[in-house]
Amino acid sequence: MKDESLGLSETDVQAAVTDKSVAAAAVIENGALEVRGLGVKYGGFVALDDVSWSVAPGEILGIIGPNGAGKSTCMAAITNSVKHVGAVLLDGQDVTGVPTDRLSRLGLRRTFQQNAFYNELSVIENASSALLQHEGTPLWASVLLPRRETRQTRRRLAMAGELLTEFGVPSELFGNLPSEIPYGTQRMLSVALAFGSGAKALLVDEPAAGVGGSDMRDLAETLQRIAKTGTALVVIEHHMDLIMSVADRIVVLDRGAMLAAGTPHEIRTNEKVLEAYLGRAA
Q1: For residue 130, which of 104, 152, 92, 93 has the smallest C-alpha distance?
Q2: Backbone torsion region of residue 43, taken as left when φ is above 0, otherwise alpha when ψ lies between -120 and 50, otherwise beta
Q3: Secondary structure E strands in 70-214
Q4: Residue 184 pLDDT exceeds 80
Q5: What is the C-alpha to C-alpha distance for residues 27 and 48, in angstroms, rounded to an integer?
Q6: For the segment 79-95, what is each residue's pLDDT rounded down to a tens digit?
Q7: How far is CA 54 from the centre of its chain?
Q8: Which residues of 56-70 are buried (b: 16+ CB within 10 A; e: fewer)?
Q9: Alpha carbon separation from 201 to 43, 82, 178, 245 (Å, rounded)
Q10: Distant-in-sequence, close-in-space partners of 267: CB < 8 Å, separation ≥ 6
Q11: Is residue 60 a contact partner of residue 222, using CB atoms and an 8 Å limit?
């Protein structure tokens, strides 16, 4: 019998790993992105409690957990979108409290569960706007400048076309509005816009939501290709087949705290993880 939420078989259940320090297992030396003691409270409710992990250049770290485990809160805290305690380091530099737009220019970027595009702009104009924002150009300029016939704008549009092609967006869709392209391609576009011309660390929030079939395979290949550029990749995902196939290491959150950390094999055979997902006694 196999549980589809974790890709678990009875053999997996019987092969539980020996307990070890969760924090020690999650943190590696010289991580491109590191979080230390991250915590978030909403009044008396603890949404995130003393979470620490790091991800190296070229590595894919998966973050999983039941609904309400604190996964998206962790993303929001890292990008300083919510008030939090603890520290965030990018290439060893403390970026705790740095505004999101500046974080983007420093190379720390993220996607969201819901696609966020300029719906009045074409696909290629959205890509050009993303390149402008990562360069630190004001938001109003990212909307208006792609329409100006300047050498710089033409060059940026050419770069945008290269970016879209690299992420598997067909050239015949470049002139379409985002709402006019297939949903799987929209998800790929969302990742491409966040990556821009390159990122030191990229946080990807549920990229496989609503995606299946060949789009899922394309997404897995894209995530692996991004990691090969030397980008540190953090992926939150409910689709266990995807996360188990692409992640080098996985952190499991439960009720805001770190429950386990390790390789995909260690996670799928960890009794504490089984209990959190399946509700069975360890």
Answers
A1: 104
A2: left
A3: 85-90, 93-94, 108-110, 201-205
A4: yes
A5: 17
A6: 999 999 999 999 999 99
A7: 13
A8: bbebbbbbbbbeebb
A9: 31, 19, 25, 20
A10: 64, 244, 250, 252, 260, 261, 273
A11: no
Residue 29 has pLDDT above 80, yes or no: no
Convert the pLDDT of each residue in 107-139 to its tens digit. Answer: 999 988 777 788 899 999 999 988 887 765 554
Q: Which two tokens stand for residue 222?
A: 């894209």
Tokens of 43: 């009044």
Cα–Cα distance measured from residue 279 to residue 218, given in angstroms and rounded to the nearest whole number? 33
Give the predicted TM-score (pTM) of the model: 0.81
**Which tokens go with 76?**
């929001």
Is it the case that residue 198 has pLDDT exceeding 50? yes
CA dist 144 and 152 (Å) reads 13
